[in-house]
Specification:
Structural class: alpha+beta
Shape: elongated
Distance between the termini: 64 Å
Length: about 450
């Protein structure tokens, strides 16, 4: 059997290192060094959970029976670790949530192979053949229509599905098929040119741009938030990420209230127009889906880069043109690269200014601290000198009294000596030498 790794990664459980990230390379070495059950025990998780982690990180793991073959000296050659793709999960932190993107992809591929059947096999009754390659559905769009239709009710008519780990599409039920079709055409065209479209990673610096679905946005007017996915849909052109959102725009439509709901006036029949009159059938303007679509592209990885583009249909324009959108997205990379570099330089300058401000603030605080130490030492020294001067005056007074007492009678002189002793005890303090020894210089106060 192969030697087990000797690094600390094999001793996560109970060592206080549960939060340490594990790279794909480290995980690959671990799962091929000892059985999955033992790897899972080291991390304090189940072997099935550990297998899911490997799937999401695209780390190949030994097949069933591998370790028996190792003991018999007939271990098959291990597969190589595939290179990481742009947008892939490259590390795993024990205790973190495991995604489902790669497992979903494998299920969809397995389902497609099962429907297609072995090469040369005729289609069996009840088992549909897969679609031809020319109409292949992109991974992000396979079997999503039922999930979008399982939606909450909304005032605007735009779907708000319960599931949020899905492609970034906001639309009404009436336009769902069309927007999914355009999205599939765009994703397929991008994939054919070597680009990748996938769900973005969960990262504090990665986010989805807000969507204002109004066809004609009005300044300072509230717009109702629409459904948003948990992760942005991201196009990777090389290493450049570009967020993509397909949405159906809304417009203000004159509507009439009838039978507990609002009906667009444009949809009323002649009979309804005649009946729906009077104060009980008031008219108002409602925000409703327009049937026209928009693609919003944006930079998802930094709040400093305000780059975005929109392609939207209008009542008099042609529909969204997939080849033109592909060409425009590819052509946007140099412009976006320049903006990112500009933002990086600005961020560095702001960081430099902040560090300079912090340095100046620390220097000012240090100057104030030294000044206060100097003032305190000076005041204490002046107070000690003043006390010494006062003590000298007191002592001179008593000495003068004692000199005058030499001419007094013995009994009176003894009484005076006793009073002088009591008075000295009341006003006596530390000597000048003691005061100076207790005094702290400015440097001793820092």
């Amino acid at each position: 059997m192969q030697d087990e790794p000797t690094d600390a990664k094999s001793e996560h459980k109970g060592t206080g290192r549960e939060a340490d990230p594990v790279s794909r390379e480290e995980l690959y070495s671990l799962v091929w060094a000892k059985p999955m059950l033992r790897v899972a025990e080291d991390f304090g998780v189940s072997s099935s959970y550990m297998a899911r982690v490997c799937t999401e990180l695209r780390v190949p793991r030994p097949a069933q029976g591998y370790w028996t073959q190792v003991e018999l000296g007939r271990a098959p050659e291990r597969p190589a670790l595939p290179p990481v793709r742009h947008g892939d999960v490259s590390s795993w932190r024990p205790g973190a949530t495991v995604g489902t993107a790669e497992r979903t992809a494998k299920k969809i591929e397995a389902k497609a192979r099962a429907q297609e059947g072995p090469p040369g096999e005729r289609a069996r009754p009840g088992r549909p053949r897969s679609k031809p390659s020319g109409s292949t559905v992109h991974l992000l769009l396979k079997d999503v229509k039922p999930l979008f239709l399982k939606s909450r009710d909304t005032d605007t008519g735009l779907l708000r599905p319960f599931k949020r780990m899905m492609v970034d599409v906001v639309t009404s039920e009436a336009q769902l098929d069309r927007v999914l079709g355009i999205a599939n055409a765009l994703f397929s065209a991008l994939t054919a040119k070597g680009h990748r479209v996938a769900l973005g990673l969960l990262h504090p610096h990665t986010g989805r741009m807000d969507v204002n679905v109004r066809e004609v946005p009005k300044k300072n007017q509230y717009h109702q938030p629409v459904w948003a996915p948990d992760r942005p849909t991201v196009l990777y052109i090389g290493a450049m990420p570009i967020g993509l959102t397909f949405y159906e725009m809304t417009e203000d439509v004159e509507s009439v209230y009838a039978n507990g709901t609002y009906i667009p006036v444009r949809d009323l029949t002649a009979e309804q127009r005649r009946r729906f009159t009077g104060p009980q059938h008031w008219k108002t303007t409602k925000e409703l889906p327009s049937g026209r679509l928009c693609l919003q592209a944006y930079y998802p990885s930094s709040s400093r880069v305000k780059w975005f583009k929109r392609w939207q249909e209008t009542p008099v324009s042609e529909l969204l043109d997939v080849p033109k959108m592909v060409a425009a997205l590819e052509a946007s990379v140099p412009e976006l690269t320049e903006q990112i570099e500009t933002a990086r330089i600005q961020e560095q300058e702001q960081q430099r200014l902040w560090e300079e401000q912090q340095r100046q603030w620390r220097e000012e605080r240090e100057r104030e601290r030294r000044q206060k130490a100097h003032q305190a030492a000076q005041q204490e020294l002046i107070a000690a000198i003043a006390a010494w001067d006062q003590a000298r005056k007191v002592e001179a007074y008593f000495e003068d009294v004692l000199r005058d007492a030499e001419h007094m009678e013995a009994g009176e002189r003894d009484t005076l000596f006793e009073r002088v002793t009591q008075a000295r005890a009341m006003v006596s303090g530390p000597s000048a030498l003691d005061a100076l020894l207790r005094w702290k210089s400015p440097s001793e106060r820092l």
